[in-house]
Amino acid sequence: MAATLTARGPARQRSTRTSGVTALHVLATAASLVAIVPLGYLVARAGGLGWGTVWDVLAQERTVALAVRSVGLAAAVALTCVVVGVPVAWLAARTDVPGGRWWLAVAALPLAVPSYVTAYTWVAAVPSVQGFLPAWLLLSLSCLPYVVLPVAAVLSRVDPALEDVARTLGAGPVSAFRRAVSPLLLPAAAAGGLLAALYVLSDFGAVSLLRFDSFTRVIYTSFRASFDRTTAAVLALVLVVLAVGFVLLERRARGRDDRWRVGGGVSRVPTQIGLGRLRLPALAALVALYGLALGVPAVMLAVLMLRGRRAWDAGEWLAAAGNTVLASGVGTGIALVLAVPIGMLAARRVDRWTRVVESAAYLGHALPGVLVGLSLVSLGLAVLPGLYQSLALLGFGYAVLFLSNAIGSVRSAAVQVPPVLEEVGRTLGAGGLTTWRRITVPMTAPGITAGALLVLVTAMKELPATLMLRPTGMDTLATELWTRTAVGAYAEAAPYAVTLVLAAAVPAFLLAQLVGRTA
Amino acid sequence: MSSIEVRDLQVAFRGTPVLDGLDLTVPDGAVTAVLGRSGCGKTSLLRTVAGLVRPRSGEIRLGGTTVVDGRRWVPPEQRGVGIVPQEGALFPHLDVAANVGFGLRGRDRRSRVEELLALVGMAGTGSLRPSELSGGMQQRVAVARALSRRPHVVLLDEPFAALDQTLRGTVRADVLAAIRSDGAAALLVTHDQDEALGVADRVAVLRAGRIRQEGTPEEVYLEPKDLETALFVGEALAVPGTVTRTGAGAVAVDGPLGPLVARPATGAPTAGQHGTVVVRPEQLALDAGAGQDLGRARVVDVRFHGHGCLVTAVLATGSRVTVRTLSGQVPRTGEECRVRLVGAPRFFAAR
User: Fold this and answer.
1) What is the DSSP letter of B94?
2) Contacts of A162 in chain B (CB under 8 A)
3) Local structure of B221: helix, strand or coil
4) Which residues from A are below 8 Å from B76, CB to CB?
5) Parallel/antiparallel/unpaired status of strands B31-35 and B274-279
């Protein structure tokens, strides 16, 4: 038979024209080493305590209960996101529910609102709200996009012919969806659920405001109250293990998704499913869900803002906004310097070294902000006292936390420049540096700029790392909101919450427009 | 008995008619190709027959059973059709055996799967994943899957278009042989005229929502019923002409090629009637011999195809003609030659 086996996959499209170690390898390795400093220090420190001490902390009933609580909350949220998110994605992507795909834009919005801002609006409305149930509900609403968006993407990408074929092979409409389509959603839904679990595990602000004792909150309070860094460090290590575990699971789930892609697929718009009599109830369910997730916090913010008008101190607000931009800007700058060599390398090379370097740099993605804060505070005090509570250290903390976002955008921008373009440039008489300046830079700049903007916005929202690393007396939007809420000054906190939401939502909206136009 | 009978089918999308009064009969155990330009409604016809699209009106019978008429609408899972979409659409999460066995159940499921895989030349590949197969192999598996429930008819939606040229011929021959040996009828939708003329038992030309002509490939190519079909199926030169004399089954036509004798496509044209003469490239020759002499011409372009050439020449009257020659005869650009007409071209009276 003439037919032959062929392997398909993105890896084959990358250049393998040169081999061996290049200057890019060295730079990228150095960058990723810098990025894993906080984690390394944490491990070294916990190890330095001696296994006896570590075991004592681990064996405490309190620690076990803490782990059960944290993982329980993460699991509950992940499960809820999957159970609610898959039907929402299906309604928005495949049915004739009023609004249709417009709901997908709405479904992305919770990503723009930091969960501690939502928690703040809830607490401000009903100060006695606390514990597992509200934390579960609130974090589920915040994390829903992690499942809805990827599942909806798969639903719109799946070849509709699959369902057609299943129908002609004797399956009814429901059975065809269940047997031919739903298995394809599983990887995306599982990966989304695991991302939600990771978010919950890392979340500090919402659980703290709702007074739910999870790992992050206990680590922070034991660090704040007694500067008890031994317990904090051991607990942090447990948290790291859990978080890294979730990241690995998530990668595995997503990997399966890639393997399942067959051929180019024929792009026919999937048939829209008529809901019939269920059309309006479905709409009502979506309105109720997103009313709760977005409407309630928005109304509360507006009410609080009106109430806090008179207490608004424009000078303080301006200083906090300035500090926020300054610190996030420093962090973004450092992140880009680290990300460019790693992202470029990852886009161009497929060797094992590259994979290790890239994975190491991605670790920051798994690290909760509390953890990076704790590690860098200890490191600053012990090794570099000059840097303790400096803007540079705060920026470095942001860079470690959001490095994976920056690498992602550099990488996907660099993939847009296939090596063959550079090769053509070289044959047209341009030198290596000229080619880089005239081809690589102009082609990658928009993607990298968009990525930098994303990192900037994400860093502006970061709460725990900022609380722990900020120079004394330096208040940002996030810390102002935090300290005012902590003392019950809800109305005074409102302008900061509104600014944070706008700062996050406006660039996110612009970014979505940009992506929409280029796609 | 016929495997498919379609009567007066009306299909519309968002109010725009796609199929408009379509009639088609597909005989048992034969491969019928539906040939049409992209967007002419080929895929809609196929999906309507499968039950994936609801027609506005009309009647469809499969294997003698009415599946659609004014009152009835049988869902696809109960119609007994197999479908092979473009690029196969294998279920990516299932291995080859599970794909082929998707619609089967019971004790002999496994042996039937093996039998089907052997039929399409894929024996022993049951445990492979679709992503491990080349495009041609995916199509073979898709055909095995479509045959699994012994359908009245297999519906093929341009299944070979995505394959590369070298592979296409083999896969196509193997797949159609497998369908024929399984005793099923096939409806092959395609825009590729070589495919339709070369492998199908019957060809139906679909244009503007209706079947314009149905017959054997020779009939459709040699005796097209209308000008559009003549120009769509195969290469052709169309020149205007006026009837000067009429005779039994032939007319004398005068036009830019000079006076020539043609066969009228329909009816008996009268003298003085205008129309179009359609000349196939193989009805012209560049050497001296029998036939109607069209005069001297100068060669302006030669496309060499290995087995022959397609020569473009300009007659003394300024008309351009396309001539197919065998490879033993390759003229050079700029060369002077004589053009003669072999056999009778077809004349279509203007409507």
Assistant:
1) S
2) 89, 91
3) helix
4) 164, 167-168
5) unpaired
Q: Are A339 and A407 in contact (CB under 8 A)?
A: yes
Residues in chain B: 351
The secondary element (H helix, E strand) that includes residue B82 is strand B81-84
Nearest to A167 among B52, B133, B162 (CB): B52
Rg (Cα) of chain B, in Å, rounded? 24
Q: A451, A414 in Cβ contact below 8 A?
A: no
Phi, psi torsion values for B314, nearest 5 degrees: -110, 125
Q: What's the Rg (C-alpha) of chain A?
A: 24
Single pTM value for the model: 0.77
What's the angle, vertex CA A379, arms to CA A377 and CA A380, rounded to 5?
A: 65
Distance, CA of A342 to CA of A339 (rounded, Å): 5
For testing the chain B interface, which of A158, A169, A269 should be mutated: the one with the most B CBs within 10 Å? A169
What is the SS3 string spanning A97-120? Answer: CCCCCHHHHHHHHHHHCCHHHHHH
What's the maximum distance between 2 C-alpha atoms anywhere in chain B?
Answer: 76
Instruction: Characterize the bridge pairing of strands B292-304 and B260-264.
Output: unpaired
Q: How far apart are CA B350 and CA B196, in angstroms?
A: 28
Among A4, A163, A167, A168, most B C-beta atoms within 10 A, so best to mutate, is A168
Single-letter amino acid code for the residue at B171:
V
Strands B57-62, B2-13: parallel, antiparallel or unpaired by DSSP?
antiparallel
Which chain A residues touch B170 with a CB distance below 8 Å?
2
CB A326 within 8 A of CB A471: no
Residue A132 tokens read as 């597992």
The two structure tokens encoding residue A349: 């090379």
Which two structure tokens, joined as six digits, stand for A504?
Answer: 């996050």
Query: CA A34, CA A22: separation in Å to the nearest integer?
Result: 19
CA distance B322 to B310: 7
Q: Using the CB atoms, write b or e for B93-107: b if 16+ within 10 Å.
A: bbbbbbbbbbbbeee
Nearest to A491 by CA among A303, A254, A334, A317: A303
- Beta-bridged to residue B321, according to DSSP, are B313
- Using a CB-CB distance cutoff of 8 angstroms, which residues of chain A are in contact with residue B158? none
Which helix (H) or strand (E) covers residue B186, if one does?
Answer: strand B185-190
Ordered per-residue pLDDT tens for chain A, 519 residues: 333 333 333 333 344 444 566 788 888 899 888 888 888 888 887 777 777 888 888 888 888 899 999 999 999 999 999 999 999 999 998 888 998 888 988 888 888 888 999 999 999 999 899 999 999 999 999 999 999 998 988 888 888 888 889 999 999 888 998 898 888 888 889 989 998 999 999 999 999 999 999 999 998 888 887 666 777 888 888 888 888 888 888 878 776 655 455 444 444 556 677 788 899 999 999 999 999 999 999 999 999 999 877 777 889 999 999 999 999 999 999 999 999 889 888 888 778 888 888 888 877 777 889 989 988 988 888 888 888 889 999 999 999 999 988 888 888 888 877 777 777 777 777 777 787 788 888 888 888 888 888 889 889 999 999 999 999 889 999 999 999 998 888 999 999 999 999 887 776 666 666 554 443
The CA distance from B155 to B47, in Å, is: 9
* Distance separating alpha carbons of residues B38 and B232, to the nearest angstrom: 12
Structure-token match 């017959």, residue found:
B215
Secondary-structure percent of chain B, ordered helix, strand, coil, rounded to 5? 25, 40, 40
| Residue A398: both structure tokens together | 């942001």
Q: Is B276 left (phi over 0), alpha (psi -120 to 50) or beta?
A: beta
* CB–CB contact A159 B138 (8 Å): no
